[in-house]
Design brief:
18% strand, Arc Repressor Mutant, subunit A, alpha+beta, 4-stranded antiparallel β-sheet, 3 domains
Length: 352
């Protein structure tokens, strides 16, 4: 086994939701639904190790092949993947809002930490920089197609990154990331799937990988089964068969006790791992505006001040339709609606 750790049984299976009361000025980062690209969700690209993993990984599935080579820093880990999820999520949200997207993205480091449920202390920024280095250094050779394009040369998950601005004490503030063509092709063709926000609260790397596979292969179906040996291959686990079974059994036991795995219940049936849909996934074409809670009465009063002379009921309808189209589920609906009203008024002025 290469550092695939388990947690103390007395701990909660999920990490705490660290940012329930988000800073109003950065609350937008919670609104873009988390997205993962389907190619890396299906194939074992990321390491499950919590220690530097310097194995060269080769994987074949039918006609598809994949070779992942680490840098001296080790392979990109499944927690490093959070950076890609954040970039993909922001890009898809822009596309849904008919805004232009580019391979090179600039964002605030703190916003990424908040959106991925990470602490915002100094050590988190150090870990973020190390994660960017591993994503850049990990090289992939594959014939797996994204967006109708096949990449033949070795490429990194990100082509480049740059710390654009730092604070006076040297902490990174603004980051620029250039995604690889392989990842960006998946974004442009929307070869992505929405992830449950509790994905970022899963403690164990193996839990995250199992959820990704269930999300990709089970999807909206009621059930998906996979042999434990095949699951180990698709997870890219370096554990022995006996140890991998023990790790999966621990996850199954905790899920039976706490139902902590997002979207899918997981169980063991002899040598088969069974994922059952909990019914928590949104329907593919559902109107997400229906599920946004009713606004507080005082919010409409504040909205009239934010957008004078506009009919706030019509504005609320515009806002809900926009959220549905952009697949946005505001974490603080009232604050989000008021910000929408201010932006509406700033662009259009008073109603005629």
């Amino acid at each position: 086994m290469v550092g695939e750790t388990t947690i103390d049984d007395e701990k909660s299976p999920l990490l705490p939701d660290r940012h329930q009361q988000a800073d109003f000025f950065v609350c937008d980062v919670f609104d873009a639904a988390p997205k993962g690209d389907m190619a890396s969700m299906e194939h074992p690209i990321f390491s499950l190790s919590t220690k530097p993993d310097r194995r060269v990984r080769t994987y074949r599935n039918g006609n598809n092949y994949l070779e992942v080579k680490p840098s001296s820093d080790g392979l990109a880990s499944i927690h490093d993947r959070d950076i890609l999820i954040y970039c993909i999520s922001q890009a898809i949200a822009k596309m849904n809002a008919n805004q232009p997207v580019d391979r090179t993205m600039t964002f605030h480091a703190k916003e990424l930490l908040l959106a991925t449920n990470r602490p915002t202390g100094g050590e988190s920024y150090t870990r973020l920089k190390a994660a960017l280095s591993r994503l850049h250094g990990t090289k992939i050779e594959t014939n797996i197609v994204t967006g109708g394009h096949e990449e033949f040369d070795a490429f990194g998950l990100i082509d480049a990154f740059k710390i654009v601005r730092t604070t006076r004490n040297g902490r990174m503030q603004t980051v620029q990331v250039t995604l690889s063509d392989w990842v960006f092709n998946a974004i442009k063709h929307k070869e992505v799937l929405t992830l449950h926000r509790d994905y970022f609260r899963l403690r164990k790397p193996l839990e995250r990988r199992m959820y990704e596979l269930a999300r990709k292969h089970c999807g909206q179906k009621s059930e998906w089964k996979i042999s434990i040996g095949r699951l180990q291959d698709k997870c890219g686990s370096a554990s022995t068969s006996k140890e991998f079974r023990r790790l999966v059994s621990n996850i199954v036991e905790q899920d039976e006790a706490y139902a902590h795995m997002p979207d899918y219940a997981v169980s063991l049936d002899r040598d088969m791992v069974v994922f059952r849909n909990r019914g928590t996934l949104p329907c593919p074409r559902s109107d997400s505006a229906v599920s946004i809670p009713r606004l507080l009465p005082d919010t409409h009063h504040e909205a009239r001040l934010a957008a004078p002379s506009w009919d706030v009921r019509n504005l609320e309808s515009e806002w809900r339709n926009w959220c549905a189209k952009a697949e946005i589920m505001p974490k603080r609906p009232d604050a989000h609606f008021l910000k929408f009203c201010r932006s509406w008024h700033a662009k259009r002025g008073n109603a005629r």
